[in-house]
Amino acid sequence: MSLQQITWPEPIVRVQSLSNSGITAIPKQYIKPPSSRPSLAPPARDLHIPVIDLSNLVSAEPSLRSETLGLVSSACREWGFFHVVNHGVDHALMGRAREIWREFFYLPMEMKQCYANAPVTYEGYGSRLGVEKGIKLDWSDYFFSSLSSNLNEGSEKVAKSSSLLQVTRQTAARRLPGCVDCYVRDLDVQLIVYPLMCLGIADNHCVLTKLRRSDPAELAIEQQPSSATELVLARAELMLCLNELRRRNPARLAIEELVAEYSNELVKLCEKLMKAFSVSLGLEEDYLQKAFGGEEVGACMRVSFYPKCPQPDLTLGLSPHSDPGGMTILLPDDQVSGLQVRQGDDWITVKPVPNAFVVNIGDQLQVLSNSKYKSVEHRVIVNSAKERVSLAFFYNPNGNILIEPAKELIKEDQPPLYPPMTFNEYRLFIRTRGPCGKSQVESLKSPR
């Protein structure tokens, strides 16, 4: 089956809507087999993924840099996961990115549905992974966006690529031609912006009409302009509303600008880590970056929303899997833990570390390192008391470049473990199946 022929096999159900409906038992399609259900008991061993201070990677003291590279190498070989602190990304920017995406999931459903995705690219607002009919589903919704394939052309390029993410403003032709919706969660208000000319009034100004939410699933129109007088009154009323919003949030960035700024900062962090990975493998500093395509690398972001679940012991927010790409930079919820990493027979819950990212090795780096670095199985648990949001930034090879074990790492007693394959080929392979533990990358290993 070609990528273009893939479709969702069943109607999509939004998990957030299920959670908000007040159900006390989850539908059967979310109930995992007993062997796959999370254990709420603490693990037998008290383990934590490493925390690495990246500031010493640029230290003038060789011993400090060497020590940090050793910590990175150990974490990649033994865990495949680690926290990074002093990473160079502004802490306030991290917080704004997390919260503006949380706001997206509080938008009215009719607005989010404008971004409903399809499995051809997964781009947009989604609620399932994999297209096999009848599979058990995960308790989460998400928004997925591909970013620029050339991430070194500056913020303008990334900003253009993230135009899909302009979720706080969208054309609403079904109301009136030329009008624009704007949902303001802080004020629980829906604003409709009407260019006066679209109502036949010779005026270049706009008017704002307010819709206040009377029910979580419905919008009740309080005021619909029908005359010039009403338009002027509506404009005055809503200008007060906007001024109040500006007072509460004087430094808020438009979401497209924020996504561009955030993405650019994470690209810099990824480039820094790629150098560290290369050196700690005994390769030239730029080896892995070149293997990924140099400047022509790829990146994408998945923002996951895990609603409250009435039966968290029966399901998962995200099934066990390893990440298919190069590496992942995760900005987790700063209040609620949920990510679990497999360590031997145990599932280790990753506790939030203030102002830290979680870095994990993807399948492509496992292949390039000939399995010296591990892409480790992980999953997400949910809870009945609190929702959770996380931002996963995936730094990937150019989709058309063959990825294979680095020849410098191949020896007589360490033959190549994987055949050459492009990331596009691998991505198609896994998209049809959804999360499947480590079976996807392990199935590629060459016969010994």
TrEMBL record:
UniProt keywords, alphabetically: Iron, Metal-binding, Oxidoreductase
Domain Fe2OG dioxygenase: 296-397
Pfam families, sorted: 2OG-FeII_Oxy (PF03171), DIOX_N (PF14226)
Taxonomy, superkingdom: Eukaryota
UniProt name for this protein: 2-oxoglutarate (2OG) and Fe(II)-dependent oxygenase superfamily protein
Transmembrane portions of the chain: none
PANTHER family, sorted: OXOGLUTARATE/IRON-DEPENDENT DIOXYGENASE (PTHR47991)
InterPro entries reported for this sequence: DIOX_N, IPNS-like_FE2OG_OXY, IPNS-like_sf, Oxoglu/Fe-dep_dioxygenase_dom, Plant_2OG-oxidoreductases
GO molecular function, one term: oxidoreductase activity, acting on paired donors, with incorporation or reduction of molecular oxygen
Family (UniProt): Belongs to the iron/ascorbate-dependent oxidoreductase family.
